[in-house]
Each structure stands twice: as C-alpha cells, then as structure tokens.
C-alpha cells in the first residue's frame, strides 16, 4: 500500500472518531485496505448509511471500490448512491479521496428525501426528472481563469464525454463554456466544476473553480442552437471574433443575452 493510503486512513480515524463511525475492516499487502464509515445523510434526522471503501494496493492511482447499505433506504436508493459515488470517484484526480467522497455524499439529500416523501410527491419529482432528461438544455458558464490550460481543458472534455454533453470552450478576455444536453447532466457538470480541483492558483497549488458563474440556462429550443457535437476549444481576440464564434454555432440570440455580463 502507498504511504498516502495509510496516512489517509489515519486521518479518517481521527475525523470519524465517534462511536461506530469508523472501522478498519481489512489490511493486507495483496488486497489492500478496507475501511467502513457510517454516516448520517441529510442532517441529524436523516437515514444512516454504511459505506465500505476497498482501497486497492495501487490506490490512489486507481479509485476505490465502494459498497453502500442502509436500513433507512431501499436497495435501489443505495444502488443509486453507490453509482453516484463511483462516478464522482472516477472524475476526481488520483489523490486520497475517501473523505471528499463522504462529504460529497451529504449533497445527495435529494436521493434520500424519497424515503420521507409521500408517493404523490415522489412521482411528481420523478416525472420532473424525466422531463429534464428528455428535454435538451443549453447553458453558458463563465470561468474566472485557466492557468494550467492542458490539465483544465482535458478535464472539461472528460466530463462532457462522461455526461454526454456537447461543449465549446471559448478562450479570450472572457472564458466561456457552452454546454448542451440533459439539464441534470449540465447541473452535474457545474457541481464537478465547483468541487474538483481542476486548475492551479497563483502559487501553483491545485484549486477548484469556485468563481464559476452560470450566465444563462434555458431549453435549447428557445436558445436557437442546433445541437453541439463533441467538445471543441476555440480562441478569440476581439468582440467581433467572439460574436462570430456564436454565429458559427447558430447561437446569436444566446450571445445577445449574455453580452452585458461579459468583460469589454
């Protein structure tokens, strides 16, 4: 096992120091480490969730294997949480991540709320989610800065592929990301952008994109777009060039909406 893995387990045992919160289940040179963390999701009155993290001997170069169980959630809800955690782990850089994943789990309140809502509310939420998935949306994001361009761009492209989004990255005085696809996937992209270290700060330390802004978000039918394919990086040096970039993808109307928000 790597020294980083042992250090992380030591830190985890200090963080989750309450009775029954943390357990080192297994430790071997062949199979690695297995830790169990019991967490309450959605506040003090939320259901308890038991998380098992299998850390391979090559961890954190490879993400952990995760299992989820709970007496307060259904099997399908546990499966959904597990899949979300696995997707999140795959999107993170190869660094110790267990604590970050447990913290991220607290953001899955929407998943666990189903166990406390009535049937009519649950069905309405599910119907709304289906509509969002079926309807294509377009969003334009503004980024504060990109210092490590290769690293940052590669991560953005990876996320658009994983989330089945079309994307354009426009590099100039204003840094813009245009996304097109299912609305929940666009929201997940924004969440990843704010929570994953995608760039470096002025001192060279890895940092998150906390200054990202959503300039506009609307159904694609109202934005005038005709469907973005893949992920393309475009550079512009002037406002006319930026205008032309939006014209090229048939989004002039969208550009007029965000123009007041852009730097001159």
UniProtKB/TrEMBL annotation:
<dbReference type="InterPro" id="IPR038840">
    <property type="entry name" value="RWDD3"/>
</dbReference>
<feature type="domain" description="RWD">
    <location>
        <begin position="7"/>
        <end position="112"/>
    </location>
</feature>
<keyword id="KW-0963">Cytoplasm</keyword>
<dbReference type="Pfam" id="PF05773">
    <property type="entry name" value="RWD"/>
</dbReference>
<dbReference type="GO" id="GO:0033554">
    <property type="term" value="P:cellular response to stress"/>
</dbReference>
<dbReference type="GO" id="GO:0033235">
    <property type="term" value="P:positive regulation of protein sumoylation"/>
</dbReference>
<dbReference type="InterPro" id="IPR006575">
    <property type="entry name" value="RWD_dom"/>
</dbReference>
<keyword id="KW-0539">Nucleus</keyword>
<comment type="function">
    <text>Enhancer of SUMO conjugation. Increases SUMO conjugation to proteins by promoting the: binding of E1 and E2 enzymes, thioester linkage between SUMO and ube2i/ubc9 and transfer of SUMO to specific target proteins which include hif1a, pias, nfkbia, nr3c1 and top1. Has no effect on ubiquitination.</text>
</comment>
<dbReference type="GO" id="GO:1902073">
    <property type="term" value="P:positive regulation of hypoxia-inducible factor-1alpha signaling pathway"/>
</dbReference>
<dbReference type="GO" id="GO:0005634">
    <property type="term" value="C:nucleus"/>
</dbReference>
<dbReference type="InterPro" id="IPR016135">
    <property type="entry name" value="UBQ-conjugating_enzyme/RWD"/>
</dbReference>
<dbReference type="GO" id="GO:0010468">
    <property type="term" value="P:regulation of gene expression"/>
</dbReference>
<dbReference type="GO" id="GO:0005737">
    <property type="term" value="C:cytoplasm"/>
</dbReference>
<protein>
    <recommendedName>
        <fullName>RWD domain-containing protein 3</fullName>
    </recommendedName>
</protein>
């Amino acid at each position: 096992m790597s020294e980083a893995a042992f250090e992380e387990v030591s830190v985890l045992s200090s963080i989750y120091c309450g009775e029954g919160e943390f357990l080192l289940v297994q430790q071997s040179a062949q199979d690695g480490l297995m830790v169990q963390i019991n967490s309450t999701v959605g506040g003090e009155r939320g259901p308890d969730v038991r998380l098992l993290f299998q850390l391979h001997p090559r961890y954190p170069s490879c993400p952990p294997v995760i299992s989820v169980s709970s007496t307060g959630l259904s099997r399908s809800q546990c499966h959904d949480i597990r899949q979300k955690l696995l997707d999140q782990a795959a999107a993170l850089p190869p660094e110790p991540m267990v604590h970050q994943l447990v913290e991220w789990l607290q953001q899955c309140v929407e998943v666990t709320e189903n166990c406390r809502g009535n049937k009519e509310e649950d069905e309405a939420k599910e119907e709304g989610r289906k509509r969002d998935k079926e309807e294509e949306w377009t969003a334009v994001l503004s980024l504060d800065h990109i210092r490590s361009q290769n690293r940052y761009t590669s991560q953005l492209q990876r996320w658009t592929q994983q989330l089945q989004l079309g994307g354009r990255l426009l590099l100039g005085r204003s840094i813009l990301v245009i996304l097109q696809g299912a609305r929940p996937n666009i929201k997940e992209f924004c969440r990843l952008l704010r929570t994953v270290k995608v760039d470096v700060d002025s001192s060279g330390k890895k940092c998150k994109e906390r200054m990202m802004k959503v300039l506009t978000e609307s159904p694609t039918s109202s934005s005038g777009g005709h469907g973005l394919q893949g992920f393309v990086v475009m550079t512009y040096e002037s406002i006319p060039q930026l205008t032309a970039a939006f014209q090229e993808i048939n989004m002039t109307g969208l550009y007029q909406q965000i123009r007041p928000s852009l730097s001159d």
